[in-house]
């Protein structure tokens, strides 16, 4: 069976972010990936210089129209990430609705990229579009803590708050919600970041059950770009592999991330030299070198069922 993904995200010529971060790992795992690049930049914006173009809503429509005219617009998955224009995002919504109508079994994985650490890095007028139009269409949602708070209007200060926020997000539409990073303290100490997940499952008898998990992710002292895009892509792949086992899907997803990040860190330190902080170029994810880990990740991070 061929599984085809439509991925609408940013693109960089050099390095790994957006579609560059998602496409190769999905292809390695056997998915066909059709990419629409919301922006095309020379490199990610963490470098000293960057140049490029932004795709408009009209240009997105033209691309989609071409796919449609050839009658090759049937997809099993949609994956969306960074978008910084309201009309563009609304056009994405129209495309998702049309593709879901054509294939009711389509799975939409949404990374609602809006901000982090209490700061928005997209225009504020995107929030109501995400909240009222995008999230209700999503099957799998991967916000960080700040984005989950924005979408629900609720602050997360405790694990109980986080569980309530995930339940509110379920009520908005998505069956699977993963808070990819939170500021909650880890029981394993400061060296770990806490992620939480929740999955609603309809049993054979029609009743609902819900699996909730906690994951302690080892922290690494460096700024990586494209890791969130990789996370959403791997969650798409591994939830397809384990549709009713969020624990297994998240363990494989986070373990892939860990292997890629550790390999990247080893390379970056060697390239920078003793005592020097690696540059953004040296910290680009070592994706190709991690092919074996992407295909068959050794589980190094275990999730705990709550």
Helix content: 25-40%
DSSP strand count:
12
In the CATH hierarchy, the third-tier topology is known as UDP-N-acetylmuramoyl-L-alanine:D-glutamate ligase
Gap between N and C termini, in Å? 35 Å
Number of helices: 9
Secondary structure class reads alpha/beta
How does the overall form come out from the CA principal axes?
globular
What is the succession of H and E elements? Answer: EHEEHEHEEEHEHHEEEHHHE
CATH superfamily: Ribokinase
Q: Mean pLDDT across all residues, rounded?
A: 96
Q: What is the CATH class name?
A: Alpha Beta
Q: Taking strands numbered 1, 2, ... along the chain, how are they ordered across the largest sheet? A: 3-2-1-4-5-8-9-10-11-12
- Total individual domains: 1
Low-confidence stretches: none
- Main sheet overview: 10 strands, mixed
Q: Report Rg.
A: 19 Å
CATH architectural name = 3-Layer(aba) Sandwich
Give an account of the 3D structure.
With 306 residues, the chain is an alpha/beta fold. The chain has a single domain (3-305), classed as Ribokinase (UDP-N-acetylmuramoyl-L-alanine:D-glutamate ligase, 3-Layer(aba) Sandwich). It has helices spanning 19-28, 57-69, 86-102, 126-134, 145-152, 159-172, 227-241, 246-272, 291-295, and strands spanning 3-12, 31-41, 52-54, 77-80, 107-110, 115-116, 119-120, 140-141, 176-182, 192-202, 208-218, 303-305. A 10-stranded mixed sheet has the order 3-2-1-4-5-8-9-10-11-12, sandwiched between helices. Strands 6-7 form a two-stranded antiparallel sheet. A hairpin with a 5-residue loop joins strand 10 (192-202) and strand 11 (208-218). It is globular and about 55 Å long.
